[in-house]
Design a protein that fits this description.
The protein is mostly helical. The chain has helices at about 20-40, 40-50.
């Protein structure tokens, strides 16, 4: 729906996962997030910058 403009999950208006799955992903990211900085520092910085951006308006917003 968003394509390349998709925001990070924390800023997204449309969640791809059910609440339980989202909780599991948060748990994994608590462990994997800090390690990502060591393995892929550029990707980590890009992700942090993306988190600061506001989510774009959902493409299907306003359709009835």
């Amino acid at each position: 729906m968003y394509g390349v403009e998709k925001p990070t999950c924390a800023n997204c208006q449309v969640h791809c996962y059910k609440p339980e799955q989202r909780r599991q992903i948060r748990e994994v990211m608590k462990w994997a997030g800090p390690r990502l900085l060591l393995k892929h520092p550029v990707l980590t910085i890009q992700h942090l910058i993306d988190e600061c951006r506001a989510a774009p308006v959902h493409p299907k917003a306003g359709r009835h």
